[in-house]
Amino acid sequence: MENTLQRFLFEHANIRGEIVSLDSSWRQVLERRKYPVSVRKLLGEVTAATTLLAATIKLDGTLSIQIKGHSGLQLALAEATGSNSFRSTAKWSQDNEMILENTNLLKDGAIAVTITPKKSGQPYQGLVQVQGESIQESIEGYMQQSEQLTTRLWLASNDQRASGMLLQKLPTKEPVESDDWNRITTLASTITNQELISLDFEMILNRLFHEETIRVFEGSPMQFICSCSEKRTDGMLQSLGEEEVRSILNEQGNVNITCEFCGKNYIYSSLGIDRIFSGKSIDPVQDSHGSVN
Ligand SMILES: [Zn+2]
Questions:
Q1: How far is the CA of 260 from the centre of ligand 1 (A)?
Q2: How far is the CA of 144 from the centre of ligand 1 (A)?
Q3: How far is the CA of 235 from the centre of ligand 1 (A)?
Q4: Cα 14 to averaged position of ligand 1 atoms, centre (Å)
Q5: How far does the centroid of ligand 1 lie from the alpha carbon of residue 58, in Å?
Q6: Angle 101-107-108 (CA atoms, 0-180°, nearest 5)?
Q7: What is the pLDDT of residue 279?
Q8: pLDDT tens digit string along 233-262?
Q9: Distance from the alpha carbon of residue 63 to the mean position of ligand 1, in angstroms
Q10: How crowded is the C-beta side of 194, counted as CA atoms within 13 Å?
Q11: 284: which of 89, 100, 152, 257 lies 20 to 30 Å off by Cα?
Q12: Domains contained in the chain, CATH given
């Protein structure tokens, strides 16, 4: 099933699982810019991982995973909400795109996982250094340390799909038998990237766990939704400070902000800049390409 997150539970084993498949929603991310193959692959994996984690941590707000690398990849960022939407983007050094394809983008990199509650409370950020050449291990380490959740991840992506599978010991009073955990994760590890990306949910479960008793829950639709808004862009300009923003306005005639995730343009004329620094609220004028203040 396209753009779906599926939960399942191993009966009598206190282990839960999730499989996510992002299809057209992932291609919406790719429409924004032409990513080098290596960056696209990593961004797909980060995006799948983010949706899987957001679903395991009962979340009223957002969870983001951000990777900062040192070898051409400047940033890969994915954000998912507790209400089954996500967005993601990446930045890389344009001068050495050839090098990007033959390098370990994660070398000496760091991963930040940030949980931002919707209503009250401060964002919480955990930082881990990247282990090895994949992000799985680092995220598994983060989940163990910060959330005390023993977790395993399998991730794969191409230009059509970003997919992932997560297994996790349930936080229950009765400990998970290590035999169960070892058996089930060993079975799961036989999945290939090609299978993860091409098989649907039922086929994956059948291929890996046909001898286990599994309860399957109803799938949740996943969507690409960008949370950028007029208000957030106002806030970003306010945090830059009036002096800085006025100098951009003087130089360029208006202040033009493009959302990195969805490409929406926010254009501020001098009236719009007056508004955000006067504290008064004026209804913005909308046009078909974006919004003009
Ligand atoms: Zn946006």
A1: 7
A2: 32
A3: 14
A4: 39
A5: 25
A6: 150
A7: 67
A8: 999 999 999 999 999 999 999 999 999 999
A9: 16
A10: 0
A11: 89
A12: 4-224 (3.55.30.10), 230-292 (3.90.1280.10)
Residue 223 CA to ligand 1 centre (angstroms): 14
d(CA 69, CA 67): 6
Going from the Cα of 225 to the center of ligand 1, the distance in angstroms, rounded, reads 8
* Residues 18 and 165 sit within 8 Å (Cβ to Cβ): yes
Give the chain's radius of gyration (CA, Å): 21
Query: pLDDT-derived band of residue 52, with 50, 70 and 90 as boundaries?
Result: very high
Counted residue by residue, the chain has a size of 293
Residue type, 269: S
Mean pLDDT of all residues in the chain? 89
- What CA–CA distance (Å, rounded) separates 98 from 93? 10
Lowest mean pLDDT among 16-25, 89-98, 210-219, 264-273: 89-98
Residues ≥6 apart with Cβ < 8 Å to 74: 68, 91, 92, 93
Task: Tell me the mean pLDDT in the region 87-108.
Answer: 81
Whole-number Å distance between alpha carbons of 129 and 141: 10
Burial level of 285, CB count in 10 A (0-12/13-18/19+)? Answer: exposed
The dihedral region occupied by 108, where left means phi > 0, alpha psi between -120 and 50, and beta the remainder, is left
Q: How would you classify the pairing of strands 124-129 and 151-157?
A: unpaired
Q: For residue 257, report the distance from its CA to the centre of ligand 1, in Å.
A: 10
d(Cα 255, Cα 245) in Å, to the nearest integer? Answer: 8
Cα(216) to centroid of ligand 1, in Å?
Answer: 34
Cα 233 to ligand 1 centre (Å)? 10
